[in-house]
Amino acid sequence: MRFSVFLNARSMSPQEDRGLIQDLTAHATSAAQQGFDAIFLPDHHFNGYMPVASDSFMFASYLAAKLPRMHFGFSVVSVPLHHPIRFVERINILDQLTDGKLLIGVGSGTTPEEMIGFGVDYRDAGAISERNLELAEQLWAKEMEDPAIEFANGPHKGRVLQRIAPAPYTPGHARLMPVAMKEASSRRAAENGWPAFIPAFTPPKIGGTEPFTHVKKWFDIYKGFLMEAGHDDATVASALDWTTHTYQVVHVAETDEQARAELEIILRSYQDAIEREAEFNARAEADSANKKTDRTPNALTDDWIGTWCLYGSPETVIEHLRPYQELGIGNILCGTTTGPLTAQRLALGEQTLRLLSQHVMPALRK
User: Fold this and answer.
1) Which CATH architecture has domain 2-364?
2) Shortest CA distance to 281 belongs to which of 41, 53, 116, 56?
3) Which of 48, 117, 275, 355 is a plausible cystine mate for 11, CB 3.0–4.6 Å?
4) Taking residues 26-46, what's their average pLDDT?
5) Which residue(s) pair with 310 in the sheet?
6) How many CB atoms within 10 Å of residue 230?
């Protein structure tokens, strides 16, 4: 079982942005030094949630130069917000810079505020995402003398005469990682021999207290498609090796009681930040084109904690993860900086890295 770090902190003002970038660079370096396998980044715009994630490819390139052993992943790229040519170009550059140690999570996005900023109708996000991914495959396959590729997809237009430069490092292109929540996404991952993100809930309810039930359901569907696809054993093993289950908050302490008390400190601060952003979310959803159809519960509820949090002593965390290991989940993605990145939050994140590295990871890598 692999362990990766999800950089998902918040800045509460423009004055905090620079410090956040420096602190996350140090946190990523600490994770690399303690034996974590990958750094994952989100894709977000306009608010305090990971301000450097306005161009996660750029930040990943910077980190990759400092941490050449690490894999880098994206959880996840909001495909409708990216012009398909720039999407393919950036992936190819980072694929070259990391020698293929790249995992591109892809999804249609969840935030109306971000959609309106890029001129995307929220109702069309899924269709634009699917078409952009089709275009990306065509662009990756295009050779110099092939006919031009011309397209118009939502706000994205273009005509490519020659080829995408640079070429990818990985044969074909870097691995994509769909979210295995729809049959089409699961099949895309499986048929291409790619890993997938395995969610712990079933829409429209984003939360609950029985996450493993949902993880097993989605994983079994994905693995079934993967086994049907006719890949060789090495391809199947590589896909499962990076198939990922994500926790927005992972917090480990010496005892369960300490872990729970510190988790509540983290979540109160996180929820305050969410509520601060609510006014802008409401403005974005003022018209029918941008209304969300689902709602995430308050972070201090049992439903949110049950779905998105992993916490406790090292022994408790190991016991929790054993069934996921036995199921076949290859990679646990750990949100270790969730919420505003205060000095206290950063110290708690470093505590979690240390205890995971010293106790949890050795037990689950045997």
Assistant:
1) Alpha-Beta Barrel (3.20)
2) 116
3) 48
4) 97
5) 250
6) 10
What pLDDT is attached to residue 288? 67
The Cα–Cα gap between 219 and 200 comes to 10
Domains of the chain by residue range: 2-364
Measured between alpha carbons, how far is 20 from 9 in angstroms, rounded to an integer?
8
Q: What b/e string do you get for 30-53 counting C-beta neighbours within 10 Å, with b at 16 or more?
A: bbbebebbbbbbbbbbbbbbbbbb
Structure tokens of 77? Answer: 């790229």
pLDDT at 293 over 70: no
Instruction: Retrieve residue 274's tokens.
Output: 């969410």
For the chain, strand residue ranges (E) read: 2-6, 9-10, 38-41, 71-78, 102-107, 149-153, 156-160, 175-178, 244-247, 249-252, 309-312, 331-335, 339-340
Amino acid letter for position 341:
L
- Both ends of the chain: CA-CA distance in Å? 9
Strands 149-153 and 156-160: antiparallel
Kindly provide the b/e burial profile for residues 156-188, where b requires at least 16 CB atoms within 10 angstroms of the residue's own CB.
bebebeebbeeebbbeebbbbbbbbbeeebbbb
pLDDT band for 48, please (50, 70, 90 cuts): confident
CA atoms within 13 A on the CB side of 121: 8
| Residue range 90-117: mean pLDDT, rounded | 94
Please state the pTM of the whole predicted model.
0.95
Q: How confident is the model at residue 86 (pLDDT cuts 50, 70, 90)?
A: very high
CA distance linking residue 244 with residue 195, whole number of Å: 7
**Distance between CA atoms of 225 and 223, rounded to whole angstroms?**
5
* pLDDT bracket for residue 263 (50, 70, 90): very high
What are the tens digits of pLDDT across the range 138-164?
Answer: 999 999 999 999 999 999 999 999 999
CA distance 271 to 130: 32
